[in-house]
Amino acid sequence: MHTARGSGPLVILAVMAGAHGYRIKPQPTQEVATAVLRVVSGETVFCSKAQGNLAFAIRQMNLSASPRVLSPREMEILTCVSHGMYQKEIADILRIERGTVHAHLARIYKKLNVHSADEAAKMFLERSQQTPFDRTHGPPQNIS
Questions:
Q1: Where in the chain are all domains bearing CATH 1.10.10.10?
Q2: CA atoms within 13 A of residue 62's CA, in its CB half-sphere
Q3: What is the CATH number of domain 72-137?
Q4: Among 1, 83, 128, 130, which residue has the fewest nearby CB atoms (within 10 Å)?
């Protein structure tokens, strides 16, 4: 993936969606070409900024030591919710049924001991040091 956006949660989403590389613009054309060739040959390639953002986000989430660990799919959904997306939008992007999104949200609320998407998003944003998604600028970039 070669993008201008590289916050930790977006890098996490990209990896969970199957990305084997993540480069944050601007990058010299030759470096991008080399990275693509390395990914094609089976390597995983992240620029240093994406690596740092990923490590920081994982540390900030502080969920791994908790018995309330969220599954990768729950993290995807929570990241989308924290970016201001509605259940239908999440279902469309993740190619799942809206009822499945609803079921995942119920489990997220229980694990995080919250009662709404707003509370869950607030907790996620506080732990990951991200800013809320501004709906006027469109949804997060497609990561697939």
A1: 72-137
A2: 9
A3: 1.10.10.10
A4: 130
